[in-house]
Amino acid sequence: MSSNINEGILFTIICEAFLQDRLVHLLQTIGVSGYTIIPAQGAGSHGKRMGDIAGYNTNIEVKTIVTPEKSDQLLDALDHFEISHALIAFRQKVDGLFD
Predict the structure, then answer these.
(1) Which position among 2, 57, 90, 91 has the lowest Cβ density within 10 Å, counted as fewest Cβ atoms?
(2) What's the CA gap between 44 and 14, in Å, rounded?
């Protein structure tokens, strides 16, 4: 493998769009250096989320690549969000071109 290849944890959150500002604040508090947010559509245990009216019944997908320690912090911090909001979070080991 190339010496430019790094290892990290891809952390993904899919949740209600109105949580975006709170999640961005959480990421910054934990010290996450970057993230991507995209609109998401689909269906699950909380019903159908079509995103056809901006700000109503819409979801977002938030992705970031972090250290294992920061992924643990994120899971712990998101635990209380999941109780009262439509939210799923998961992590995967990845390697690629990132810092």
Answers:
(1) 2
(2) 11
54 by Cβ neighbours in 10 Å (0-12 / 13-18 / 19+) ranks as: exposed
For residues 54 and 68, give the distance between their C-alpha atoms in angstroms, rounded to a whole number.
34
Closest CA to 26 of 68, 62, 67: 62
Low-confidence ranges of the chain (pLDDT < 50): none
Distance CA 28, CA 22 (A): 10
Q: Are 91 and 10 in contact (CB under 8 A)?
A: yes
- DSSP label at 80? H
CB contact set of 53 (below 8 Å; sequence gap of 6+)? none
Give me the pLDDT at residue 83, please. 75
* Residue 54: both structure tokens together: 């901006």
- DSSP state letter for 53: B
Q: What is the pTM of this model?
A: 0.84
